[in-house]
């Protein structure tokens, strides 16, 4: 039976050394993986109540027990991603969704500010006149893409992970004559230490709920910064006295 909306979340398995590798210098491999696991669970829990078809597309496969548990208790069907690169995997998931729903929304799992309000906007913004929606990210990509009708030519041959993804996507949509809408405020995805620090400065109340390894790493970094500042201050005092 055809439904109105399908919701797809893309997530890597929280495997040590595989997930959130750019955060390893700050959090360590185990801490980075545990933060990724927290982000996936955080997102799926917030979306669990939505009365739509929900899928968790996992990479590299569906074997990780955390993904199985989180998908099951939050009403998501767990599916493996298929495709040679991110664009191919996204196109495959969206095409599958469009076979069973009029509108399909696909998002990443590392955007803590994605919420039901934004998803409601995306659903309403998808119309025959504007059959594609995008939610930009601060790093030049996008956190969510929504489609209805045919897939546009924006998924193949893209330099995924670069700063020009959104700009190139817009260019391709213009060339193809596809109208689209964008969420007006870029979101922050948590890829790098600076992203994590900026998010925690904006939402300090979440620190206590983060995994222990993450909190320990952040405390160690803070202690190191204080020590360095004290040492620098001591050096300056010595130079003044001399």
Question: Helix- and strand-based class?
Answer: alpha/beta
CATH class category: Alpha Beta
Under CATH, the homologous superfamily reads Spore Coat Polysaccharide Biosynthesis Protein SpsA, Chain A
How is the main sheet built? Answer: 7 strands, mixed
Work out the oligomeric state of the chains in this entry. single chain
Number of domains: 1
Mean pLDDT: 93
Give the amount of beta strand, in percent: 15-25%
Q: Which fold does the CATH topology refer to?
A: Spore Coat Polysaccharide Biosynthesis Protein SpsA, Chain A
Low-pLDDT windows of residues: none
Helix content: 40-55%
Q: Under the CATH scheme, which architecture would be assigned?
A: Alpha-Beta Complex
For the secondary structure, the number of strands is 7
Principal-axes shape call: globular
How far is the first residue's CA from the last residue's CA? 83 Å
């Amino acid at each position: 039976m055809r439904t109105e909306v399908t919701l797809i979340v893309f997530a890597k398995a929280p495997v040590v050394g595989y997930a959130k590798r750019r955060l390893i210098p700050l959090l360590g491999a185990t801490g980075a993986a545990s933060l990724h696991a927290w982000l996936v669970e955080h997102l799926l829990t917030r979306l669990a109540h939505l009365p739509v078809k929900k899928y968790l597309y996992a990479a590299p496969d569906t074997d990780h027990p955390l993904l199985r548990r989180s998908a099951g208790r939050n009403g998501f069907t767990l599916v493996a991603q298929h495709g040679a690169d991110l664009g191919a995997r996204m196109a495959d998931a969206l095409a599958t969704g469009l076979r069973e729903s009029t509108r399909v929304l696909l998002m990443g799992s590392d955007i803590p500010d994605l919420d039901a309000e934004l998803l409601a906007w995306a659903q309403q913004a998808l119309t025959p006149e504007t059959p594609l929606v995008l939610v930009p990210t601060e790093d030049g990509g996008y956190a969510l893409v929504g489609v209805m009708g045919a897939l546009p030519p924006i998924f193949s041959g893209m330099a995924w992970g670069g700063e020009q993804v959104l700009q190139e996507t817009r260019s391709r949509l213009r060339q193809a004559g596809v109208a689209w809408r964008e969420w007006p405020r870029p979101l922050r995805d948590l890829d790098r230490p600076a992203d994590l620090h900026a998010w925690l400065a904006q939402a300090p109340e979440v620190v206590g709920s983060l995994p222990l390894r993450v909190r320990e790493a952040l405390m160690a970094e803070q202690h190191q910064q204080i020590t360095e500042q004290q040492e620098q201050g001591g050096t300056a005092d010595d130079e003044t006295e001399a």
